[in-house]
Amino acid sequence: MLQKTTLYLAVGCLLLSGCNSTSEIASDYRSNINVPTHWQKDEQSKPIKIEWLAQFQNPQLHALVSHALQNNHALTQQQLAVESARQQLIISGSALWPTLDLSFDSSKRRTSREGAIASSQSLDLSIKYELDLWGKLSANEQRANLVFMAQQATYLQQQYELVAHVITAWFSVIEANQQQALLVERVALVAQNLDIIESGYQKGLNSALDVYLARSEYNNEQAKVESQHAVQLNTVRELERLVGHYPAGVIAVDADLTLLKSDVSFGLPSELITRKPQLVASWYQLLAKDAELAYAHKQRFPSINLNMGYGFNHDELGQLLSGSALGWSLLAGMTAPIFNAGKLAANEAIAHIELKRTEQNYLNTLQDAFLAVENAITAEDSLQARYQQTRDAADHAQFAQLLSFEQYLKGLSTYTTVLDAQKRSFEAQSNLISIKKQLLTNRVALHVALGGDFQLTHYEEVPHENN
C-alpha cells in the first residue's frame, strides 16, 4: 500500500514538473553580446602575454609583491570569504542526501492515584530523505556552487589588483625620492645663488631687492623640501600597509623609474570576457541569480519526504536492546503550499527582479572593463608623446637657467629673470619624473585591465630606456 501511495505521489509531481524550466540565461548568452572585433588602436591584436610582472626586473619589488600576497589583510579577508562559500556549498549539497539521526529517550510518569510510576526507554535510528523530483534542491546546490566560483574569481581579481597596487605604490616611493632629491638639489642651487648675490651686494654690485628675492626663494625651497619629506614618508607607509607591515615609514627603496620599451599585446575584446577574473565573477553571480530564481519558483511545488524509523522501546533499560523490543516504521508524505498570502509568489518575483538587476550589473561591469582598456591604451600613447616633449623641455630649461644666471652676473638681465628660468627648469624636471611614473603605472593598469596574469621571480630580457 505504501509503495502504491509513493508511486501516485511521484506521478503527480512529474505532472506538475511541466513548468519546471525557469532559466532565463541561455547557454550562448555571452557569445551573443555585441563586442567590437578589435580595440580602437590595434586591428590585428596579438595574443596577450600573461607574465607581465617579469618585465620589472627588481628583486625587492618581487619580494614585496610576494609578501603582500601572503600578508595583505584585505586579500586574506576575501580568501576567508571563499572558504565560507565552500562551506555553504557543502550545506546546500547535503540536502540531496538522506539524514541519519540517532535518539535516546527516557521518561517516567505516574499511572495511578496510588503513586505507581511507570518508566519507558527508547532508542531510535531514523532516516529522512526528500525526493528532488524537479530539481529544487539541485537548483539550490547549483546556486551555492556558482556563488563559490564567483568568490574564487573575485579572490583572483583581488590578487591581480593587489599586485598592481604594490607596484604602483613602489613607483610612488621612487617618484617621491626623486622629487625630494631634486628639491634638495634645488635648495643647494638657490643657496649658492644667494651667497653670490649677497657677496655682490656687499661689493655694491647688486641691489637689496635682489638679496631679498634670493632669500625669499631660499626659504620657499626649504619649505618645499619639508613638505616633500612628508609626502615621501606617506608613500612609504602606503607601501608598507599594502604588504602587511606596520606603517612605520622605514622601507628603503633604492631604484630608478626605468621606462619599458616593450610593446603590449592587447588580445581581442571577446577574449576579455572569459579571461578577466572580474568579468568571470560577475558572470557566475548572474548564473547564481538564475539558479536562485529556479529555486524560488520550485518552492511553490509540493515536497515529498520519506521517513524510516528503526528502534527499540522497553520499560526496562536493561531489556532495551532485546529482540522483543524491536520496532520499525516507514512513512511517506507530501506537503504542498496552498495559502501563504502571496509569500512564495513574492519571493519568486523578487528573485526575478534580482536576476534582472544582476544582469544589468554584469553588462555594466563588462562595459567598464572595455572602457578601462580603451582609456589605458589612449593614455599610453598620450603619455609617450608628453614624455618626449617634457624631456626636450627639461633640456632647454636647463640651458636657459644657466644662460640667465650668466647674463645676470654680467648685468644683462634682472634677477627675476633668473628666478623665472630656474623655476621653469625645476618644473620641467619635476614633470619629467611624474610622467615617467605615470607611464609605468599606466602600463600596470593596462595589464590588469586586460586581465593579464603575473609570474613572480621569473625575469625575461626586456629592453629599457635609462634616460
Automatic annotation (TrEMBL):
Keyword Membrane belongs to the record: yes
Major localization listed first in the record, in broad terms: membrane
This protein's GO CC annotations: cell outer membrane
InterPro entries listed in its UniProt record: MdtP/NodT-like, OMP_efflux
GO molecular function, one term: efflux transmembrane transporter activity
Membrane-topology descriptor: Lipid-anchor
Location in the cell: Cell outer membrane
Gene3D superfamilies tied to this protein: Outer membrane efflux proteins (OEP)
Keywords: Lipoprotein, Membrane, Palmitate, Transmembrane, Transmembrane beta strand
Family that this chain belongs to: Belongs to the outer membrane factor (OMF) (TC 1.B.17) family.
NCBIfam families to which the protein is assigned, alphabetical: outer_NodT
Protein name as annotated: RND transporter
